[in-house]
Amino acid sequence: MARLQKVHVLGAGACALIGGVLLGGIGYLPFGPPGLVAGVVAGVALGALLGHRLSESADPRGDLGHFEQIYRRAEYYVEGMTWDDYAPAYGLALDAYARRQRDPELVAAELEADWPSLRGRSRLEWAQAYPAIQHAWRQLSERERAQER
């Protein structure tokens, strides 16, 4: 399972709807309208949770998908750049973090040396890509520390 969550509105919403209908119907049969209400509430909550988890586990993007959803809101985002520009930077960060798990400052020169061959068609220069790498590294580190608690 990925470390960083993504938003799965369609999967969670569809399962919430199905769960509400199913549990609402089941609650209505023995308890009437109060059972309907309780069943719908419980079904929507359980369905949304299940839908999100199923969608998350089926998402082939892994942690990269988290950054695809948020990169345009980041303070380092360069206007006019697309996901194709940022994806290699985040990918480099995810790979480097998985291999080294050290502060990116300690391996910045190595990452910078890797950037020309890994950037593909990205229009980002190293100075523009590095903040995205630091951001990804920071989020992965924070998530890992939270899981250890």
Report on the structure:
- The protein has 149 residues and is mostly helical.
- Helices cover 74% and strands 0% of the residues.
- The chain contains five helices and no strands.
- The chain has helices at 9-58, 63-70, 83-100, 108-118, 126-148.
- It is elongated and about 70 Å long.
Mean pLDDT: 83
Structural category is mainly alpha
Radius of gyration: 21 Å
User: Proportion of β residues?
Assistant: under 5%
Tell me roughly what share of residues is in helical segments.
over 70%
Number of helical segments with 4 or more residues: 5
- Give a short account of the largest sheet: none
Number of strands: 0
- Unreliable spans are none
Distance between the termini: 18 Å
- Global geometry: elongated
Features:
mainly alpha; 0% strand; elongated; 149 residues; 5 helices; single chain
Give a short overview:
Helix content is 74%, strand content 0%.
Helices and strands, with pairings:
Layout: H1 9-58, H2 63-70, H3 83-100, H4 108-118, H5 126-148
Helix pairs in contact: 2-3, 3-5
